[in-house]
TrEMBL record:
This is 2-oxoglutarate dehydrogenase complex component E1. GO terms for molecular function: metal ion binding; oxoglutarate dehydrogenase (succinyl-transferring) activity; thiamine pyrophosphate binding. Its cofactor is Mg(2+); thiamine diphosphate. Coiled coil: none annotated. The keyword Ubl conjugation applies. Gene3D superfamilies: 3.40.50.12470, 3.40.50.970, Multifunctional 2-oxoglutarate metabolism enzyme, C-terminal domain, TPP helical domain. GO terms for cellular component: mitochondrion; nucleus; oxoglutarate dehydrogenase complex. InterPro entries: 2-oxogl_dehyd_N, 2oxoglutarate_DH_E1, DH_E1, KGD_C_sf, ODO-1/KGD_C, THDP-binding, Transketolase-like_Pyr-bd. It comes from Aldrovandia affinis. GO terms for biological process: glycolytic process; tricarboxylic acid cycle.
Length: 1012
């Protein structure tokens, strides 16, 4: 750095003009204009504006003198030799003096050098800020960005010259081109006039390129080549005809829908019809590079067109969706047509290769599908061993307002290069309507572009005018090549407009009159492009009209065929089929679940591995060593705590070839330092061991991965991962149970109703630490009431099944909610999740204090061969021996059981009070509850919970108990009073509340004489 300061000092001493007045502005042009230096900057600010460029050149020269122009090489050599100010720039090589007499004075030579430096700076300014003056808006009335700064040095030729200290006479002078530009093609020198012309063609036309923030020279050079080499954007006549045909299909599809169903919402693509050729170019180039599976996600605008012309769903299946008389054949509520997805394998006609396209279903919650797509793509890559994403990739489409406004976009971007979450590059296509629903961009975002969020991961951003189809497909070609070359995200910003309102029934003139007056005058892109090709002689008018007529005929025939459809099969729209898991009709292959217990040898083997370190010479932390020794002691005693029960469930599934994935914040160690599935060497940095991957010789892999500090994005990702295969146990653990609050959209829109809306089975497991521990309102409750409210079992109807009650009830549910109180039951419910013949989401309220509670242990006998998950754990103490004498039965769930048991013992009421645990809360175990209340026919019934009365389980279980009891007996509530917050933040208040409801639970006179 001291050497650089010396070099910079020589520059200041020499007083080169590019580090003064105008050159300061030029350097300002090389940085973010919103941070820039004023045009009248003083000497200190000049250094701030200009030194970074000198430093960049200097470090490049240090690496290899050939990296810089020969003139810089001479300068830095002289500067390092401590040449006095003014002499370092002398003895310039003759390359800078081409066309001039070699007998020039030192002052004249200095002028030549300064002019070359000014030209180099001008080139760099175009590369950095040319997109700000590119012609991106097809309407010609708005800037694509919201930056009020106008780069005056790039507007007119006179301004450019003056800004950089050049004269109009310099336009015809020849200048040496730097190695950081390719505008010369095979030429190394060009006249200034031609340099400017080529830069404007590259950076100020219908394409705006943002890439100079990328801190990788190779990647920047790659992008420069793609946009600067003269003539690189040429298309063959055949390519132009293909583009026109695709544009015809996109446009005429929307026209056909508008004619047939003029009063229906369809969220059409009018104004951005070029999206279809854009996506098809991405798919073509990706297929050419070896990709054979693409997972896509998009909002509702243009979905029907993408389904028809990209995924190639049968048109009659799309058209029949508009029939209001169509009856649903499949169970469930279904969804509107522009939310549905599709899975299709077909031949790519351009490459003649098989390709599988999956468009994911998603609701109107814009961008919610982003992490789901990424998770599914990651899973497919994982199961295929595609570690570099050369076979499977993802494409995400976005709206401009949602891309800038929805936080899940940012969360998803930050997963893009994390080892356990990367999909090796996603192509993002933003359909930039330049408006939200009715909100102007200036009121909707603070960033200049809606795509600026992508800069956080150094993704290049290609802005393109959507009324120039050739520019669009060229940008898509480059984006596909970028993803294939660098395996990194890339963004295409399709600057377009929305010909109608938010939907076809909306009136946009209310709020955007100027924009829509121009839109009404705007010529359709198909008309513009067809006229262009006809004028070029690429196609004739007759050929164009025949292409239009051919597609119109296809639509008409499909429309006629669609009228024969009387029944809607949502399964035809399934985006994640599991063909080997279900029967041909989509039903489970059986309706029974085998026992979930294991033999003694397997239990011992897994627990011994969980208690040891499989690597030699591994330096383990003393605290972790104590935990492993504790596990070894439990193994000798044939006992398991919560962590060991989980370990045995995971390990046994791995033995059976089931991939297990556990993801979330700090899950490797566990929030409460109980798990330790990843052991770290205390002496060797980054050396670690995952013992569970050393259980069996041919086991399935175990993936345990700490996530970014995200819930919405990561839960969506894991949901998508679980969609890829039914033969995997995919678990997401919240750091604390209430952290799922910020992932509520995924729970409400995908997990709870996914099967009803989209016939989408999913076996994801949510592990939510829950329990009132006196630690305050934030990390106490996992909000069980929310999950129970969304459970679809009927509280007023006692279910009747002819087969296995438990399995049939689970099959009818939308998800399973459990609160296990023993390690054995946790072990069984995890194994049952895979052994069931179908998949349902599983919500587990996991403990905190019970992780180390001495009574919360299970014998190996409770997990032995023939055992299974217990939906209810009945009382097995003295009360159960004489049930007719029991005065009170307390039903409860989870941790409060141990507090109730302790209080019962202290009051010596073991014979008078029975305590029964509901381990599975939803679907409600009607049959087992009925058996228990009949057993204790003389007892008073209590529901006790530690949560407040308006929270927890009471509102769910009360009507179901009354259904079991046929309203002949009451069930009383014992617990905390209603409250606004989930728990108190005061320890004394917490203990007082606990004592109060425990006293009530065992006060046998508490409810005497009260009517129900």
């Amino acid at each position: 750095m001291s050497q650089f300061r010396a070099v910079a000092g020589i520059l200041r001493g020499h007083g080169l003009r590019w580090l003064r007045g105008q050159a300061a502005g030029a350097r300002r042009g090389l940085s973010d204009p919103r941070r820039g230096c004023s045009s009248g900057a003083t000497e200190p600010s000049l250094a701030a504006c200009g030194s970074s460029y000198v430093e960049e050149m200097y470090y490049a020269w240090l690496e290899d003198p050939k990296n810089v122009h020969a003139s810089w090489d001479v300068f830095f050599r002289n500067a390092q030799a401590n040449a006095p100010p003014g002499e370092a720039c002398e003895n310039r090589p003759s390359a800078l003096l081409q066309g001039r007499a070699m007998s020039q004075t030192p002052g004249m030579a200095q002028k030549v050098v300064e002019d070359h430096l000014a030209v180099h700076t001008l080139i760099r300014a175009y590369q950095i800020r040319g997109h700000h003056v590119a012609q991106l808006d097809p309407l010609g009335i708005l800037d694509a960005d919201l930056d009020c700064f106008v780069p005056s040095d790039l507007i007119t030729t006179i301004d450019k010259l003056a800004f950089y200290g050049l004269l109009e006479s310099d336009l015809d002078k020849t200048f040496q081109l730097p190695s950081t530009t390719f505008i010369g093609g095979s030429d190394t020198t060009l006249p200034l006039r031609e340099i400017i012309r080529r830069l404007e063609m590259s950076y100020c036309g219908h394409i705006g390129v943002e890439f100079m923030f990328i801190n990788n020279v190779e990647q920047c050079q790659w992008i420069r080549q793609k946009f600067e080499i003269p003539g690189i954007m040429k298309f063959t006549n055949e390519e132009k005809r293909t583009l026109l045909a695709r544009l015809v299909r996109s446009t005429r599809f929307e026209d056909f829908l508008a004619r047939k169903w003029s009063s229906e919402k369809r969220f059409g693509l009018e104004g951005c019809e070029v999206l279809i050729p854009a996506l098809k170019m991405i798919i073509d180039k990706s297929s050419e590079a070896g990709i054979d599976s693409i997972i896509m996600g998009m909002p509702h605008r243009g979905r029907l067109n993408v389904l028809a012309n990209v995924v190639r769903k049968d048109l009659d299946q799309i058209f029949c969706q508009f029939d209001p008389k169509l009856e649903a054949a499949d169970e469930g509520s279904g969804d509107v047509k522009y939310h549905l997805g599709m899975y299709h394998e077909r031949i790519n006609r351009v490459t003649d290769k098989n390709i599988t396209l999956s468009l994911m279903a998603n609701p109107s919650h814009l961008e919610a599908v982003d992490p789901v797509v990424q998770g599914k793509a990651k899973a497919e890559q994982f199961y295929r061993g595609d570690t570099e994403g050369k076979k499977v990739m993802s494409i995400l489409m976005h709206g401009d307002a949602a891309f800038a406004g929805q936080g899940v976009v940012y969360e998803t971007f930050h997963l893009s290069e994390l080892p356990s979450y990367t999909t090796n590059g996603t192509i993002h296509v933003v359909v930039n309507n330049q408006i939200g629903f009715t909100t102007d961009p200036r009121m909707a975002r603070s960033s200049p572009y809606p795509t600026d969020v992508a800069r956080v991961v150094n993704a290049p951003i290609f802005h393109v005018n959507s009324d120039d189809p050739e520019a669009v497909v060229y940008v898509c070609k480059v984006a596909a090549e970028w993803r294939s070359t660098f395996n990194k995200d890339v963004v295409i910003d399709l600057v377009c407009y929305r010909r109608f309102g938010h939907n076809e029934m909306d009136e946009p003139m209310f709020t955007q009159p100027l924009m829509y007056k121009q839109i009404h005058r705007q010529e359709h892109v198909l008309k513009k492009y067809s006229d262009k090709l006809i004028a070029e002689g690429v196609v004739t008018l007759q050929e164009f009209e025949e292409e239009v007529a051919k597609y119109d005929k296809i639509c008409e025939e499909a429309y006629t065929s669609s009228k024969d459809e009387k029944i809607l099969h949502i399964r035809h729209w399934l985006d994640s089929p599991w063909p080997d898991f279900f029967t041909a009709e989509g039903e489970p292959k059986s309706m029974s679940c085998p026992p979930t217990g294991l033999d003694e040898q397997t239990l011992q083997h897994i627990s011994q591995t969980a208690s040891s370190v499989p690597l030699a010479d591994f330096n383990i932390h003393a605290g972790v060593l104590r935990i492993l020794r504790g596990r070894a002691e439990m193994t000798r005693n044939r006992m398991a705590d919560w962590a060991l029960g989980e370990y045995m469930a995971f390990g046994s599934l791995l033995k059976d070839g089931i991939h297990v994935r556990l993801s979330g914040q700090d899950v490797e160690r566990g929030t409460f330092s109980h798990r330790h599935h990843v052991l770290h060497d205390q002496e060797v940095d980054k050396r670690f061991c995952v013992p569970m991957n050393h259980l069996w010789q041919n086991q399935a892999p175990y993936t345990v991965c700490n996530s970014s500090l995200s819930e919405y994005g990561v839960l969506g990702f894991e949901l998508g991962f679980a969609m890829a295969s039914p033969n995997a146990l995919v678990c997401w653990e919240a750091q604390f149970g209430d952290f799922h609050n910020t992932a509520q959209c995924i729970i409400d829109q995908f997990i709870s109703p996914g099967q009803a809306k989209w016939v989408r089975n999913n076996g994801i497991v949510l592990l939510l630490p829950h329990g009132m521990e006196g630690m305050g309102p934030e990390h106490s409750s996992a909000r069980p009431e929310r999950f129970l409210q969304m459970s679809k079992d009927d509280s007023d109807r006692y279910p009747e099944f002819t087969g296995d009650f438990e399995v049939q009830q689970l099959f009818d549910s939308n998800w399973i909610v459990v609160n296990c109180s023993t390690p054995a039951n946790y072990f069984h419910v995890l194994r049952r999740q895979i052994l069931l013949p179908f998949r349902k989401p599983l919500i587990v309220f996991t403990p905190k204090s019970l992780l180390r509670h001495p009574e919360a242990r299970s014998s190996f006998d409770d997990m032995a061969t023939g055992t299974r998950f217990q939906r209810i754990l009945p009382d097995e103490g003295p009360a159960s021996k004489n049930p007719e004498k029991v005065k009170r039965v307390v039903f409860c769930t989870g941790k409060v059981y141990y507090e109730l048991g302790k209080e019962r013992n202290q009051q010596d009421l073991e014979c008078d009070v029975a305590i029964i645990r509901l381990e599975q809360i939803s679907p409600f175990p009607f049959d087992l509850v009925k058996a228990q209340v009949e057993k204790y026919s003389n007892a008073e019934l209590i529901w006790c919970q530690e949560e407040h009365k308006n929270m927890g389980y009471y509102d769910y279980i009360r009507p179901r108990f009354l259904t079991v009891l046929s309203n002949r007996r009451p069930i009383w509530y014992v617990g905390r009073d209603p409250a606004a917050a989930p728990a108190t933040g005061n320890k004394v208040t917490h203990l007082a509340e606990l004592k109060r409801f425990l006293d009530t639970a065992f006060n046998l006179r508490a409810f005497e004489g009260r009517s129900f």
